[in-house]
Amino acid sequence: VNGEVASTRIHDIINNLCSAADIPLEYVDAIGLGLAGSSSQDGRDMVFGKLDNIKLSQR
After folding, report:
1. Cβ contact 51:18 at 8 Å
2. d(C-alpha 38, C-alpha 16), whole Å
3. CB-based contact 58:48 (threshold 8 Å)
4. What is the reported pTM?
5. Can you give the C-alpha Rg of the chain in angstroms?
6. Tens-place pLDDT, residues 13-46
7. How far apart are CA 15 and CA 30, in angstroms?
């Protein structure tokens, strides 16, 4: 899986979980992710970029 696809999937999972639980993203204080095989700096940057788009990268 390339970094763009993986980061989009992570973004979508977070959005879907919050939506299913009826929790606004603004209520999320922290997210812990354990990503196997995330040795690529570009891949990590893509994930944090997606989290930044929904204002979660600094929480």
Report:
1. no
2. 22
3. no
4. 0.69
5. 11
6. 999 999 999 999 999 888 887 776 666 788 778 8
7. 14
